[in-house]
Amino acid sequence: MRLFVKPTRLLACLLIAGLALAQSSCAVADYGGDRLMDLTDIIDLKYGVGVGVGAKAEVTTYFGAGGGLAALGYTREWFGRRSTIQQAKWFLHFGVAGVDGGRGSLSWDEQEDPDGDHERADVHVLFANITTLNDHATGPRGNQPPSEVNLWGFNAPPTLDRFRIGAEFVIPVIQFGLFVNIGEIVDFVGGFTTWDPAYDDDASFHDVYYDSRVTLEDAPSEDS
What we know:
Layout: H1 7-40, E1 43-59, E2 64-79, E3 82-86, E4 89-95, E5 97-100, E6 122-125, E7 128-129, H2 130-138, E8 164-171, E9 174-181, H3 182-191, E10 208-211
Parallel strand pairs: 3-10
Antiparallel strand pairs: 1-2, 1-8, 1-9, 2-3, 2-4, 4-5, 5-6, 6-7, 8-9
């Protein structure tokens, strides 16, 4: 009876075991990294430049109130892992009503927007964000995996990321906002069971799903 294993067979077994251990370690590292990223997604940041003074509070993106007048320049705003970029917009609020960002259009008709810019302003009437309510009823929901839908050409955030609470303000030169994203809390908790309702486990904080400086004609297509 043989009481020893051939060196070549032993080396092969060690190699297979090492590869399996390395793959397991990578999977654990990826899982831990995704959960950490999901945790940071809970806080949404907004920053930019503006001339004027104003402030606005939001209880979800569907309802908000503010006051002030300002002209806005470059603005970047995160909704979970991904962000939007806007430029040369405005901020005008009088308590129960107001407008900020975009061009004021609620249309999704490309015929009316030949340049491909579907960036609508947030229009508030009696505290309700009419634009977001319209997005919810008729606009793209943004709930599909990003790889399956061309998100360029409109700035409506995914439905999951519309449920957040926070505020923003504009003072001379600076625009800043901070929000707690309730939808991303759901994504964080769900992530422990590998459920990813935000479709962001492979996403980066550098991902931009809408840029007002880029038209549909210039933006990458679904097939690219």
